[in-house]
Amino acid sequence: MAANAVYYNDSSTLSSGTWSGKNNGNIIGGGDGNSGHLNLSGTSEYSDISAVGFDGAIGTLTINESSKSTGDINLFKVGSATASELSSNTDGTLNIVGPSTGNINFLGLRIGDTSVYDRYTVRDKSVTGAVNILDGATVNIGATSQSSWDASNNVMWIGSGNAANTGILNISGEGSSLSLINKKIEESSYYDDSMVNGDAYLGYLGHAVVNVTNGGTFTAGRIVASFLRKSDIADNLAKLSTTDITVNGKNSKIVVQSLMALASNVGGRIYDIDFSDSLQGVGKATLTVEDGGEVNFEGKSYIADDGYEVATSGLFLASDQKSDATVNLNHGGTISISNSVLSSEEDGIIAGLGKYAFNLNGGTLRVNSCKYCDNQLTTSVDMNVLSVSFLEADENKSMSLKGNLIGAGGIVKNGTGAVILSGKNNYLGGTRVEAGELRSENDDAFVNNTAYIINGGMLNQNSHDLVMSSLSGAGGIANVTDASLIINQNNNSYFAGEFTGSGTIEKIGNAQLALSGDSSKFSGITTVSAGNLDSTKALGGHIIVKKDALLSATGLLGATDVLSGANLIVGSLYQGNSPKISALTIDGSIKNTGNVFIGGLDNNRQSMVGNRLIVNGDYHGGGSLYFNTVLGDDNSQTDHLSIAGDTNGNTTVYVKNVGGNGDYTQKGIELINVLGESNGNFVQGSRIVAGSYDYFLQRGNHGNGTDEKSWYLTNFKPAPIPEPKPDPEPIPDPEPVPDPKPTPEPEPGPQPRPKPTVRPEAGGYAHNIAAANSLFILRLHDRLGETYYTDVFTGEQKVTSMWMRHAAGHTQSRDSSGQLQTQANRYVMQLGGDIAQWSRDESDRWHLGLMAGYGNSHNNTRSSVTNYRADSSISGYSLGAYGTWQQDEGENTGAYVDTWALYNWFNNKVKGEDLSGESYQSKGWTASVETGYTYKLNEFTGSHGSLNSWFIQPQAQIVWMGVTADSHTESNGTPVSSYGDGNLLTRLGIRSFMKGHHKMDDNKGNEFEPFIEVNWLHNTKSFGTKMGDTKIEQAGTKNIGEIKVGVESQIKTSLNLWGNIAAQVGDQGYNDSLFMVGIKYNFK
């Protein structure tokens, strides 16, 4: 301090007037153990203050409100000491609180400083200085004119001179700033050494802390942190220097006009130490930029000896083995920098032999925009990618990162310029390109087996191979020129960008990769080896789909090979796409040895109709084609295949009906159109059905007005191709005769309309409803099965019983179209018993009983046109009651009336050949009223002494059939309903029987009653089915003739047995045969 220094060791506030340091004290808080505190506020003015907190004292100077300096302040010290022996710590604080304090100008500033010549002194007491520039206050450090500059001007020292020293600089608040200005006022190049043009020296032996927060700004020509002179280097000093620089908060900024050296060597000189010595980085220096903060390297220049400007902007880390430098570029922080002359490679960021860490932890590394920058940033520094961080190069700028990028975080490329990676990188958090170009310079630059997102710009493999764990993004380009790209997709993703180049792309992994960009310019090979590749716009080049893989596409594909076991679907399977009718164009040929699905699905996995596959080249078969069609007439909606070139090979075609009910076709429904040579053969792979009809795939013919090169669906069976006749023997030319008058050719008559082919399933449905209504129908003798008898002891007639019957039958019938033949086998078991019986006059008999049954029918129907077969069946149960009145006039003659009612329920099945099985239920009531009268025609004695009686019994019966089947929709979409319920079956017949008894059987109760019976049966309705809009019914059942023969017997008074066989014959080939046995036990 100057010899005339005056200490102010008091406390006061001056709100007006002038504080003169010469009169009141130019050191606020000076002298060992003292303290001084001065608050300048209001409109006060001040001059000649040079220090705060000096030589063991505590000092505080606060300048706020509108207090202003009356002139420049020379070198100013905050927290400083010169005395070697102090009994108290030194603590100085300068608070400058804006925004009305005006521009405060110091020629130089030292914070937490002792004389640099004090560096070898061991101090017991600390020296601490703190400068707080707050709320919009502005401070300049440096000479405002050339004439006022000397070696100590334009320089700021923080935490310097001794290990016990700490300097703190806080710049906080919007508009708050500290600027170290150049010695020349006008904007021009530096003189021969930039270090004298606004330098900040931080942590020379001591500890320096710089905090720029909440919108503050710190500007310096050069920042040198944690260093010693080369001549000072010693182990006991090298570890003492520490610096912590933090830039935090929106709009907070450090502007470096040339160089920031963190624990690094500097080639310049410190004039007030030694004009010949240079600086060497030691200790530890840390730069942290976060939460909206920025460090901006402006890239000023100096004039070299050759007269050219040379940029000196850059960041130097840990130059010596005794140094340690860390850069923390945290979330929201930005470092803007470009190249300089720091190295022979002109790198913008370099590191030396010391320990360093450049941590990308969510911040942005940006190529700077400035007057003297060369628009490039090159560095070989390794960087730790700790979280998703950003690399930004704007238009006409580039960033080249030659070091290794490692860590758990990811990289995002921003800006329209280029970022080039050439290190051996191994960051695991994925790569994202938002704009511009991200380029690989070697096979290790892009990290394999990680996720890549391209939202804009270009990911340029630049002839280097890459394996991605996934690809996604909203746009941009993946350039695969002369390279291999493998996408191992194990989670579904969506990429809206495009592929360019001529390399190879392979999609592996079981998940879906959905593409929506225009990759028509890609000329390489794309292989789908696993999972689903979904393309909705264009994918050029040559596409190969391998076994078990799936390519779904709309728009355009290049030439495509669908290998054996592979699948191509027309339409998108991406869940984000709305279901719609799709078209796919193959811009070239297609080789199909796998499966091509032209029919599409909506988001509910329901089939859609109307997709188109257009092949601009040839079609090579060997696989399968799948179509969806609304099967009806010639104008039915359908999927379609158009082939501009030739066809060859055999292709199996499968057609799924989507809601069609079947209709008559004349020309047919065009599925496949061929413009070139139609040498290929398209073969129907399975039955094609709708409504009641079978459809067939056949080549067109001129006879019905269709193109012979193309292929159609019709529901009339194609005529067989006739065998070619051998060429006839040549006939000698006849003698010439005069030409007769030409006979006009007759006009061709109208072609007969082909008859549609009826499905055999129709016969199955029809027979099921017929069986459900008739299976449990019975007659009195089917159930009663007894002869009249009189108790041999009492003469009283008794019939109280439990009965059971078994019946088996076989039916053959045709349908109303004449194409279907049905055979059916049935089995019925019924049992019942009386629950009450009585007589009103001792001659008649009344029965009331319950009965139940089980029955089934197994049927098969075969088409005489197609030879297709359908199997059908029903099985079910019945439960009901019966009531009978029988008249006996003494000679076992007279009338009877029998009634019954049953509730029936069945499970029904129909299984067509090559079709899915169908199941449905049926249920309902059946009821009957039967009557008859027994006449005794004759009685005679047999040759062996037997007494025989001959009876005749006319009968009439009416049965109401009310079993209905549920409406049903087949898996192919055909609605099915059955009809015929409500039918009234009437039967008129006559039964003739013989009753015989031999004397040897007296008192044994044995009777034997053979019979023959003929009946005429009439149905008021036919049983059938409606499939779609077409009805098919069982034929020949309106009127049926029946003959039945059998025997009824009484083995003993308590046991009856009976059996019969019957045959029925109807119209149109209807016939039925029946065998029945019954047993009844009579209780007394």
TrEMBL record:
Keywords: Signal. PROSITE patterns: AUTOTRANSPORTER. Residues 707-762 are annotated as: Disordered. Residues 795-1083 form the Autotransporter domain. Coiled coil: none annotated. GO terms for cellular component: outer membrane. Residues 719-757 have a biased composition (Pro residues). SMART domains: Autotransporter. NCBIfam families: autotrans_barl, autotrns_rpt. This is Outer membrane autotransporter barrel domain-containing protein. It comes from Hafnia paralvei.
